[in-house]
Amino acid sequence: MSKIRIATTSLAGCFGCHMSFLDMDERLVALLEHVELNRSPLTDIKHCGPCDIGLVEGGLCNTDNVHVLREFRDNCKILIAVGACAINGGVPAMRNHFTLRECLEEAFLNGVGVENPQIPNDVELPLLLDKVRPLHELVHVDYYLPGCPPSADEFLSVLGDLLEGREPALPKKLLHYD
Amino acid sequence: MSSLNRTVTAEQINAVIADAYSQSNHLLHILYALQQQFLHISHEAVCKIASHLGLPISQVESVVEFYSFFYGTPRGSYNILLSNCTSCGYKAGGENLLHMLCHHLRVVAGKTRADGLVSVDETSCIGMCDHGAAMLVNGTPIPRLDAGKIMRIADLVETETPLANWPAEWFRIDDNIRNSSLLLKNDFAAGDGMRAMLARNIDGTLAEITQSELRGRGGAGFSTGMKWKFCREAQGAAHYVVCNADEGEPGTFKDRILLHSHADAVFEGMTVCAFVIGAEQGFLYLRGEYRYLLPQLQAVLAHRRELGLLGSSILGQPGFNFDIEIVVGAGAYICGEESALIESLEGKRGVPRNRPPFPVTHGYLGQPTVVNNVETFAAAAHIALRGSTWFRAVGTEKSAGSKILSVSGDCAAPGIYEYPFGVSIQQVLDDCGAKDVQAVQVGGPSGTLINPVKFNRKLGFEDLPTGGSFMVFGQGRDLLAIIVNFAHFFAHESCGFCTPCRVGTTLLKNGLDKIASGHGTPYDLDEMKRTGALVKRRSHCGLGQTAANPILDGLQRFPQIFEQRLAHRNFEPNFNLDEALEEARLITLRDDAEAHLEQEL
Amino acid sequence: MGEEANTITHNTIYIDGQPVTFEAGQTIMDAAFSAGVYIPHLCHRPGLTPHGSCKLCVVDIGSRGVSFHNSDRRVQTKFSVDIDGRSVSACTTPAVAGQQISNNTPALNEVRKTITQMLFIEGNHICPSCEKSGDCTLQAMAYHLGMLDGHFPQFFPRREVDASHPTVMLDRDRCILCELCVRASREVDGKNVFAIAGRGITAHLIVNSSSGKLVDSDLETNDMAAHICPVGAILIKEHGYEVPIGRRTFDLHQVGEIGLEKVILANGHGKYATPDDETRHARFPVPNPLPQAGEGANESLREFHVNVRHTDE
């Protein structure tokens, strides 16, 4: 029988949620008997095919994030916002205290150790949004998996519920934002 | 702008404070004097006031930041505020007069022009709804605005013509009384009510007020006689009478007429109350938008003192001492809430108190206080003179007497209409010449939005209680735009004390903006219902408890105005994607295809 | 009717049907507190003047009570009609004999969750970057109410940070306007270090000093106002990470535990609880066993999709 197809990606995040996902360690083996990974940094598949579940880490900080999230929403039956950044912008959203110009000037013109100061403007680069935003401000998100990062147990709890065909209900003991 | 800052010396600030203090020690009045003189209230001035009045710096600062008419940075020598009300607002005539004026004066709304000459901004309803679009220039109202007048005003500003030399006709404000009943039809000579009161003595007067079944005219309708009785019986070092003349509900202007042409009845009603409850001090809390009435009101008070109707041993009665001070607000709708008003009277931010205790036992300075509406006091004076039977002869079983309505919007004859309680909406519409009516907003944005099938409903505490605002919207009006306007109003006027109102009114405003701009989905409508219900039920005071009314009424009675604006998708982003890239495009000078995003795919 | 029965009627309220006795002058919150009944709250702290602003303690009063204790009985009786059958703040509403109060109901906890979400999205609550994480009552409240996300669009306000004071830090991003610091400074410390300025969504915490900065205020490290902040807006410098994440107050306790104020206060003064094995393991339990292959897992997932779509409509 066919396996549940899962895609994962990290937008404006740190891949910490992915690392935490891998913290399942040997339980990954049991999981992979039920699921197969589609687009994911773990498979290096570049584009999403039709999937059952999309796990998205990180918020939205640039045009590429917008395109990728839309691809996930279009292809995944269930979309899960994974981790603090996906849910409320997280640490990257701390740049929202400043204007984009202030951020770029500090990073590329006035910062310590900057050589050949210039703000990058190559058309190959994704353009930055004025603010970092959570996923649910762009697309409908089905479920949220909080934590920085969510623990491997949290991933298992939610995936286990979905595999069993249950509405995911995170046990309170697993709920944390840090 | 900053030149103004530099030229102000500490001595000048101190001199203005000392001068203002010599006339009134009320914080709002001292702040007003500084605002007038220096066009803003600097942090230095805040510190000096604090030291002069012996208040914490933070208290003065918090008050400056609370009230709309105080500014931390300099405004223009001409500070122009256009009403944004749906009846007397800058869009009331169809054109956008705010944009027009800003364009002529080359100024950005909300920002003072670089030369410091002028600033233009919008403000909540200024109570000129029967006069068309209206503005305040340095606090003085100019109604009946149109495109031509806006151009002339821009010229007068540019030529730095003093306000005194602007056409006097522009400042004329009429009473526009279209229909009269108990209060507006009958003459009232100063002192007559009080002489009748003295003849009846305290118990007799209170009994008369109680038997009249007069209920508060602000809209809540609490029994006036009972309120006075509770206050009279409450223990306290002093008792106070407060007249709530902070008529801020958009579409309401009846107090303007009562204070302009019937001030004696209002003050006399306050004095009758003082006699009953044993107060020696009264306050009239006048909304800042009506400051232009102040000289005339002061003159009425002076005259009443000359007549022995205020002061010591009033009308020769030993021990009957009472006087009235006028405190002028500074642009905060919430101060119409009685406990917020009391906070403001005490020189604080207008934040509603927890109740109980109620003002009748713990009001101004923690002492027993009666707070009544302007119209309630005027009615009380008439009742003192003419008796409860006269009053009860009109109205309905639970709503004795008459109600003064402020009728505005799409009708031939906007103005003041006084009716016996029980009048139907349709009757009012017929009388004011309203045709092809789409909806009526009774009681202002915090009241009820009525659709035509309910125009047989009657005004009164049994059916439709109202503070008096009666706004008519014709078929040509964009009703959703009206509801959006109201949502902006509440978000602007929320005091910020409790979470549901502070955050909820802004969520409602943002959600409605999204829907009105064509980016709403059925999900967003559900969100409005859910958030609206929570704000209504869980907010701290009447502001929050009514802020969602226009939205909830609209969704229930005019669902099509929302639905026809919906995007036919399951989900729409909560922000404008391409706008979110504008800053980056400007910085990188990019405008290639990849430097843009479609709002939806 | 015996005297005993009268006593019960005269000084008893009912919270979710459970009788709770009260003394004259107590609020619903006071009475619940004494009886060990938890009513969620953020802006309330016994000993300080009740505030009633956060609205986490909203309860529904279902039936009218008549006061036998209030000296001004007439007023009480009359005005209790006003609050009859309505939503009130437990921390500011007097207990009145016979009140039937709904508190721990799914509907009210849903309202409280929404209010908590409002508090999160109006500020900048980036838990992973906050040294109060784990000791934060707002966060603990969100855990208590099962909040997974902020639900609403984030406001992302730009608020001022004040690091001027040598020992105390003020980060307004995390301020929830509960005014505990305002009241602690005024009522306990005998100072007036803090106030709220502005209005509506722009309301913000200000400091009482000529410069508006903390360094020029009267605030001292040992003031209650420096320690009472339920979130990470007011922090004592250089002590932020003395207790590691995972061993902090709300890693070991639930916000609804009665008597927790003492624990928080103790923690605020550098005495920290140590985790026992049970609570430490609570955070990292053995996971649910996954379904074995061939148990029709995929079918049930598809069924789940159908159900979800169905209930959505």
Question: SSE layout and pairings?
Answer:
The complex is a heterotrimer of chains A (178), B (601) and C (313).
Chain A: E1 4-10, H1 16-22, H2 27-32, E2 35-37, E3 51-57, E4 60-62, H3 63-75, E5 76-82, H4 83-88, H5 100-110, E6 128-133, E7 143-145, H6 152-163
Parallel strand pairs in A: 1-2, 1-3, 3-5, 5-7
Antiparallel strand pairs in A: 4-6
Chain B: H1 2-7, H2 10-23, H3 27-38, H4 43-53, H5 57-66, E1 78-83, H6 97-105, E2 118-123, E3 135-137, E4 140-142, H7 147-158, E5 177-179, H8 182-185, H9 192-212, H10 224-233, E6 240-245, H11 254-261, H12 263-277, E7 281-286, H13 294-306, E8 323-328, H14 338-345, E9 369-373, H15 374-386, H16 388-392, E10 402-409, E11 415-420, H17 425-431, E12 437-442, E13 448-450, E14 469-474, H18 479-493, H19 499-516, H20 522-538, H21 542-547, H22 549-557, H23 559-563, H24 582-588
Parallel strand pairs in B: 1-2, 5-11, 6-7, 6-9, 7-8, 10-14
Antiparallel strand pairs in B: 1-3, 3-4, 10-11, 12-13, 12-14
Chain C: H1 3-10, E1 12-15, E2 18-21, H2 28-35, E3 58-61, H3 73-83, E4 87-89, E5 100-102, H4 106-122, H5 137-144, E6 161-162, E7 168-171, H6 180-188, E8 194-197, E9 204-207, E10 234-236, H7 249-252, H8 260-268, H9 277-283, H10 297-312
Parallel strand pairs in C: 1-5
Antiparallel strand pairs in C: 1-2, 3-4, 3-5, 6-7, 7-10, 8-9
Q: Would you give an account of this structure?
A:
- The complex is a heterotrimer of chains A (178), B (601) and C (313).
- Chain A is α/β, with parallel strands linked by helices and 178 residues long.
- Chain A contains six helices and seven strands; from the N terminus they run βααβββαβααββα.
- Chain A has one domain: NADH:ubiquinone oxidoreductase-like, 20kDa subunit (Rossmann fold).
- Helix content of chain A is 31%, strand content 20%.
- Chain A is elongated, with a radius of gyration of 18 Å.
- The mean pLDDT of chain A is 95.
- Chain B has 601 residues and is an alpha/beta fold.
- Chain B is built from 24 helices and 14 strands.
- Chain B has helices spanning 2-7, 10-23, 27-38, 43-53, 57-66, 97-105, 147-158, 182-185, 192-212, 224-233, 254-261, 263-277, 294-306, 338-345, 374-386, 388-392, 425-431, 479-493, 499-516, 522-538, 542-547, 549-557, 559-563, 582-588, and strands at 78-83, 118-123, 135-137, 140-142, 177-179, 240-245, 281-286, 323-328, 369-373, 402-409, 415-420, 437-442, 448-450, 469-474.
- In chain B, strand 10 and strand 11 (415-420) form a beta hairpin.
- In chain C, the strands form three sheets. A five-stranded mixed β-sheet of chain C has the order 2-1-5-3-4. A three-stranded antiparallel β-sheet of chain C has the order 6-7-10, with no helix packed on it.
- Chain C has helices at residues 3-10, 28-35, 73-83, 106-122, 137-144, 180-188, 249-252, 260-268, 277-283, 297-312; strands at 12-15, 18-21, 58-61, 87-89, 100-102, 161-162, 168-171, 194-197, 204-207, 234-236.
- With 313 residues, chain C is α+β, with helices and mostly antiparallel strands.
- Helices cover 31% and strands 11% of the residues of chain C.
- The radius of gyration of chain C is 23 Å and the shape is globular.
- At the A-C interface, helix 2, strand 5, helix 4, strand 7 and helix 6 of A face helix 5 and helix 10 of C.
